[in-house]
## 1
Amino acid sequence: MVKFDIITIFPEIFGSYFKESIIKRAIKKSLISVNIHNLRDFSKESHRAVDDKPYGGGRGMVLKIESVYRAVKFLKKQKAKSKNKKTKVILFSPRGKKFNQKTAHQFSKLDQLILICGRYEGVDERVAKYIADSNISIGDFVLMGGELPALMLIETVSRLIPGVIGKSEEMIKERITKEKGFIEYPQYTRPDVFFPEKNVCWRVPKILLSGHHKKIKEWQKKHRKIIEK
């Protein structure tokens, strides 16, 4: 089982997501566990403050190191009683390493992922330097916080855990190549003929309706797209 521990100042963002679909079933079957921790619970300041103005000036506020340190220390201590447990602390940052399928595979082999969700103008750089094991970016753009990246990481990693998705091992073998990356090809379903408007017809490729499995595999191979790592 992989345990996901999310550190955030907006814990209610995650409420409904983990109560739906495949993730909900994975939690119920104890294939994964997801725990949401309010960073403010680890603040010792009045009004549970966790941010302050940046040194050197600049707009906005920066999350302070103290509360993040206490939260991570507390979560690591929970695992300390168990020997040989593999834990990684992840900080989401636009300046981090690009998250990809290879990294997701690596994370799926761990026992615990502690996910730090930044907000405002960012997180004190000492968190990235001394506390986080990996700084992760999900793309060349800037979001308002790390909550959406955390959801994306959890879903990507969870689907690689045996039992979360039916026939997951077969799916992984067919669609992932360690040498090249993530493989995807066009998918179609019923109806095989669709008329969006008069004199317009969109059809499913005939080969996919043929029942000829060898030719279908050849078609999929020809039309697949390899998304590089």
Note: The chain has a mean pLDDT of 90.
## 2
Amino acid sequence: MRHSILQEIREKVEAYTHQLPELRLPPGHPGEAGMARWIDHTLLKPEATPDQVEQLCTEARQHGFASVCVNPLFARLAETCLRGSGVPVCVVVGFPLGATPSRVKVFETRTSIEDGAKEIDMVMPVGLLRAGELEAVLDDIQAVSETAHAQAALVKVILENAFLDQPGKIAGCLVSQATGADFVKTSTGFGPGGATLADVELMRRVVGPQLGVKAAGGIRSLADARAFLAAGATRLGSSSGVKIMAELESAGGQ
């Protein structure tokens, strides 16, 4: 079974490298209304303080963002601040390198969920993907996905596209999809490059309408947000959510 899954992935990588599938957007793809519910309001700087996390949560309550995305250290604080708001806590795992053993990512996932996280943004082992070790990458993502899904938490898999060629990006999407992950995500924001419109469209073409696609890294304006949503993103990771919402209000949007 595992062999046939991996073989299918390799065959699709070869085929999609020459001809990507048509672009198919998910049902109810986000439009102009309700922009806030597509934004993960994010603070992942290593020097972030508890006061800054509390401010992040206050802003998320005010605007109704899709989630607040923080480092595992602040999961419990964020959950306390957001309790009753309807805004879930998103926590990064294996961040920002993805180069920790799977059992450590599993422990980090389990601990973060115990502390209140409802969404997990994990970094895949990009070096193994670059080496073509698809089974090891699949096992890594699946271990986190199974742990999170057992507690009804979503999983977003960060590919870190700036380190990958097109076949690598395609393979990363297909492996993530095969594990039952809920989203694929462009980048950490800590790598050599962030989200690009071309990458988001490629990812959407590869995973089709079934999976979420999260664009993250360098989304700083309303124009950026609109462009990435139009390219096929269904979630935007940004530390500029408040600025985006202010621009939208000034433009008379929602």
Note: The radius of gyration is 17 Å.
